[in-house]
Write a structure and sequence with these properties.
2 domains, Thrombin, subunit H, 6-stranded antiparallel beta sheet, 9-stranded mixed beta sheet, about 350 residues, QueA-like
């Protein structure tokens, strides 16, 4: 297997720079694994492709203001940090630009609005993958001084930060949005529930791997970074009951897929499909993976050669997914975080 098996050419003008308005007016592609058919619709018609008794599982993680801009007091040079993972009080794993000058012992300042020192920081350690462990003097100022980090392929600044959050997000912790959920409105969720479709909420904090490229040609040598997840006993019970009764589990997004499949690997009862609890997952799903929980998937259109495209290729079969992407390009679907959606049934 090569990462180039998951490549495709995307015209730059199909990379969505702004979200659809209203949220549920994005386009929806329906891809059938049974007969390999592809149909087109609008996202607000999603309930037409759901069945009474289905369980729709959402990731309720919210994006934190993880992007910080600062200066080097010795040179006056500007720096930018992306907070990746909270390690312990004051310590964060980060991406830093420009990285070359930010060696161990380098100090920096994150000023507040009036130019005074808000947060003092220091590079404690440089990791092999290029990330830095940094110490921040006052973490309580991060929500005030930080900004919502948009993916590097979005060039326009965010006008409304809530538009890069799901309407049901509750738990702070992600550095990128679980973008399949951006299409849902509260009214659409109400309509889904009125159709006797159950909704279940879980949490997985989306990390760097949502947009980190695979460096090696063989993706099997790629190491996923760990992401924190939690699944309540009540939510696991709802999913187990549905599976035992032959009802479908529909995952909203690839992050939810990874959470559910990780929880399935850690189930406490062999007679159940999934276990509850919390922890860290570095599960990397590629073609050949046997899914334990997920029966259908709502997802956006992902970057070429990415771990996310590999995951949906494992779920929907690679040739069918590449066929669907070719069809999306032909029909000028909008791609990536702010782009259109697909349901794989």
């Amino acid at each position: 297997m090569s990462k180039f098996d998951f490549d495709y050419q995307l015209p730059e003008d199909l990379i969505a720079q702004t979200p659809a308005e209203p949220r549920d007016h994005s386009r929806l592609m329906i891809v059938s694994r049974n007969n390999r058919s592809i149909h087109h619709d609008t996202f607000f018609n999603l309930p037409e492709y759901l069945h009474s008794g289905d369980v729709l599982v959402f990731n309720n993680s919210r994006v934190i203001p993880a992007r910080l801009r600062g200066i080097r007091p010795t040179t006056g040079g500007k720096i930018e940090l992306l907070l990746l993972k909270h390690l312990s009080p004051g310590l964060w794993r980060t991406l830093v630009k420009p990285g070359r000058s930010m060696k161990k012992g380098a100090v920096f300042l994150i000023p507040n609005d009036n130019g005074e020192n808000g947060i003092c920081g220091e590079v404690v350690e440089v990791q092999q993958d290029g990330t830095r462990i940094v110490h921040l003097s006052d973490e309580e100022l991060i929500p005030t001084l930080g900004m919502i980090p948009l993916p590097p392929y979005i060039n326009k600044p965010v006008q409304d930060e809530e538009r890069y959050q799901t309407v049901y997000g509750k738990i702070d912790g992600s550095i990128a949005a679980p973008t399949a959920g951006l299409h849902f409105t509260t009214q659409l969720i109400d309509k889904i529930r009125a159709s006797k479709i159950e909704t279940v909420f879980t949490t997985l904090h989306v990390g760097w791997d949502s947009f980190r490229p695979i460096d090696n040609e063989d993706p099997r040598s790629h190491k996923m970074h760990s992401e924190y997840w939690t699944l309540s006993e009540e939510s696991a019970g709802s999913i187990n009951k549905a599976k035992q009764e032959g009802r479908r589990i529909l995952s909203v997004g690839t992050t939810t897929v990874r959470l559910l499949e990780q929880a399935a690997l850690q189930r406490q009862n062999p007679n159940e499909y999934i276990g509850y609890g919390s922890g860290w997952t570095d599960l990397f799903i590629t073609p050949g993976y046997e899914f334990n929980v997920v029966d259908s998937l709502v997802t956006n259109f992902h970057l070429p050669k990415s771990t996310l495209l590999m995951l949906i290729s494992a779920f929907g079969e690679k040739d069918l997914m590449l066929k669907a992407y070719k069809e999306a390009i032909k029909n000028k679907y909008r791609f990536y975080s702010y782009g259109d959606s697909m349901i794989i049934v």
